[in-house]
């Protein structure tokens, strides 16, 4: 009888393992709710006290003292008391817990310990936020949701583009009305051009003028020429286009002044000029000088013109989206000044810590560390900032070149003409000075 029972138990275990594996592969959400969540929740509850003590998240209770005649009688030795944590609540991607802070504690200490919590609970990542004074929300994601990102949806809005999916499963949206200018950093083959193609695909159907500056000879943005109101493929052309845009910006300024309004969005529909999005692929090409006098002068002109557009453009419907492999201060002081104006940041995998620091360091140090941990296999994965000042890992939808070209081709007829740009690229050399 014994061997039969043993064989039966073995068969049952093997069957459970096979079924468990099948469920994990084909129904990861069910697997998470049935097996992953109970195991992780137990781990959280059982390790909480130890983790808090080891990471200085617990406070020590004063031992009770008493007087016995003239003698002070000490009680028990110092006892660390862990902050109270709620029972882990499951969601589709992981679990959340609320922690009630002890008096004197701040969320910053918990943020520093996020890595230790990740390892202790064997999850992909733990994010620490503070939704309310005195409370900390720990959000643990079980596996990397960006490995197999689903499709997100977002309402269609003018100057808003659905780029991809964020780590929490929400839509990754670049809304230029909320954040007017963006910096996209990333090493070669990290996903910058794919992201720009996605942005162009999303903006192409909208009544928006797209202007391209691609000093890599127009290799990337040249694919969308039909839908671009202008395309500069070298620095001389970039100076011409940027100069024309600054002239257009000044005209918009005087239109607003005459109408007594502070932005083009307050102008009546009939008078409102079309919004312009300037896309720059490889910013370094505009700033690096070949040492010649003309080269230096052009680089300085580009720097000044871009800065003017960034400083004054937001209210006048002029938006900048600037991409580059390196955005270090070695490109000149103009880059640092420009960066300060580019409120939206997207940082893909980078080759040097300086670029991650430049892209995200002035906003959030934790985001810099996360951006540096993006691997070469994680193409299209980036750390992006949100309109609320927070940040998240995200992945762009993979938009193939054919798809992007086909979409833009469908909207060529709606490409707005910008009067100041017409002829700017054909003007004889020297007219832009
Ligand atoms: N979101 C994504 N998901 C999956 N693969 C992606 C994604 N984004 C980009 N890739 C892949 O990564 C590769 C490089 O992408 P891309 O050309 O956009 O990089 P890049 O940063 O612009 O490089 P370079 O600076 O050399 O132009 C492409 O083959 C593309 O298919």
TrEMBL record:
InterPro entries: AAA+_ATPase, FtsK/SpoIIIE/SftA, FtsK_dom, P-loop_NTPase. Residues 169-357 form the FtsK domain. Keywords: ATP-binding, Nucleotide-binding. ATP binds at residues 186-193. Gene3D superfamilies: P-loop containing nucleotide triphosphate hydrolases. The keyword Nucleotide-binding applies. PANTHER family: DNA TRANSLOCASE FTSK, SPORULATION PROTEIN RELATED. This is FtsK/SpoIIIE domain-containing protein. The lineage of its organism: Bacteria, Bacillati, Actinomycetota, Actinomycetes, Kitasatosporales.
């Amino acid at each position: 009888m014994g061997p039969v029972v043993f064989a039966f138990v073995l068969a049952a275990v093997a069957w459970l393992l096979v079924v468990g594996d099948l469920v994990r592969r084909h129904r990861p959400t069910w697997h998470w709710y049935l097996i992953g969540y109970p195991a992780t929740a137990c781990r959280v509850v059982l390790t909480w006290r130890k983790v808090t003590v080891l990471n200085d998240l617990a406070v020590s209770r004063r031992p009770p003292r008493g007087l016995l005649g003239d003698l002070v009688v000490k009680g028990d030795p110092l006892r660390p008391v862990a902050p109270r944590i709620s029972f882990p609540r499951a969601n589709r991607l992981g679990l959340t817990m609320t922690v009630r802070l002890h008096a004197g504690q701040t969320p910053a200490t918990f943020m520093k310990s996020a890595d230790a919590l990740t390892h202790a609970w064997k999850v992909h990542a733990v994010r620490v936020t503070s939704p309310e004074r005195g409370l900390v929300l720990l959000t643990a994601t079980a596996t990397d949701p960006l490995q197999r990102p689903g499709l997100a949806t977002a309402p269609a809005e003018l100057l808003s583009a659905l780029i991809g999916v964020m780590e929490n499963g929400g839509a990754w949206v670049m809304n230029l009305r909320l954040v007017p200018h963006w910096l996209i950093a990333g090493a070669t083959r990290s996903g910058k051009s794919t992201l720009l193609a996605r942005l162009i695909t999303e903006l192409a159907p909208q009544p928006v003028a797209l202007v391209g500056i691609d000093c890599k000879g127009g290799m990337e943005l040249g694919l969308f020429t039909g839908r671009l109101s202008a395309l500069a493929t070298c620095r001389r052309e970039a100076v011409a286009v940027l100069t024309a845009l600054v002239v257009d910006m000044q005209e918009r300024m005087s239109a607003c002044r005459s109408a007594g309004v502070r932005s083009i969005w307050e102008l009546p529909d009939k008078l409102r000029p079309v919004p312009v999005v300037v896309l720059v692929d490889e910013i370094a090409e505009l700033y690096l000088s070949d040492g010649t006098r003309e080269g230096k002068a052009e680089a300085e002109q580009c720097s000044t013109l871009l800065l003017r557009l960034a400083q004054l453009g937001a209210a006048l419907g002029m938006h900048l989206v600037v991409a580059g492999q390196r955005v270090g201060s070695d490109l000149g002081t103009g880059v640092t000044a420009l960066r300060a104006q580019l409120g939206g940041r997207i940082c893909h995998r980078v080759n040097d810590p300086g670029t991650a620091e430049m892209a995200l360091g002035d906003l959030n140090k934790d985001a810099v560390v996360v951006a540096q941990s993006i691997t070469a296999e994680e193409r299209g994965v980036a750390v992006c900032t949100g309109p609320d000042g927070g940040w998240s890992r995200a992945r762009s939808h993979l938009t193939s070149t054919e798809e992007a070209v086909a979409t833009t081709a469908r909207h060529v007829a709606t490409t707005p003409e910008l009067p100041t740009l017409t002829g700017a690229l054909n003007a004889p050399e020297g007219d832009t000075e």
